Amino acid sequence: MESTPYFHHDIGSHMYFLSSAFPIHGPGSLFLAYFSTALLCWGERALTVILEGVHYSYPVPKSRIMLRSSLYALSIILRYLVMLLLMSFHLGFFIVIVLSTFLGQVAVEFYRARSIHPHHTATDGPFSSAFSSGGGPSYIKLQQSIMSHARNPPPAPSGDGDACS
After folding, report:
1. Which candidate in 78, 123, 136, 163 could, as Cys together with 128 as Cys, close a disulfide (CB 3.0–4.6 Å)?
2. Which residues cross the membrane (predicted)?
């Protein structure tokens, strides 16, 4: 039995893009396959960002649940298609997938960075004092902040309809 290298870069007679319905015969069809691979990777990154942006509010409509579930299923399909391309062990597909997912994530991070309000920080919230000084999170500061909030709980709401009075 002949041993084959893990990664190869040749265009053989039996090379296909995901299925035998899309054969790769030469440089033109290989470029089209690479471009389609990049679109798959960018589409997966875009769907993930869209999925993160779909939030629930009470009451949750069934259409919102179906939308999130459908987007998740579509993102899984794209991820598995990319996995199948990686399993071809073609060096070109490997490089295209790594570069296009990297560039897609860079675009995602720029999009997220643009959408942050100038006065908002990632540490805004009830425990922000634990992260505000010293250049980074500290376990002791975080623990002190949690204990401070535990000792001084917010006041109980005063109710007109108190059943115990």
Report:
1. 123
2. 20-42, 71-87
Range of the domain at 60: 16-114
- Please report the pLDDT score of residue 154 as a whole number: 60
Is residue 144 situated within a structural domain?
no
d(C-alpha 7, C-alpha 89), whole Å: 5
Q: Nearest to residue 147, comparing CAs of 123, 122, 135, 130?
A: 130
**Structural domain tally of the chain?**
1
Structure tokens at 165: 């009075």
Identify whether 76 is part of a domain. Answer: yes
Percentage of the residues of the chain whose pLDDT score is greater than 70: 66
Report the pLDDT averaged over residues 27-53: 93
Residue 77 lies in a domain: yes
- Report which of residues 136 and 30 the model is more confident about: 30
Q: Which helix (H) or strand (E) holds 21?
A: strand 19-23
134 belongs to a structural domain: no
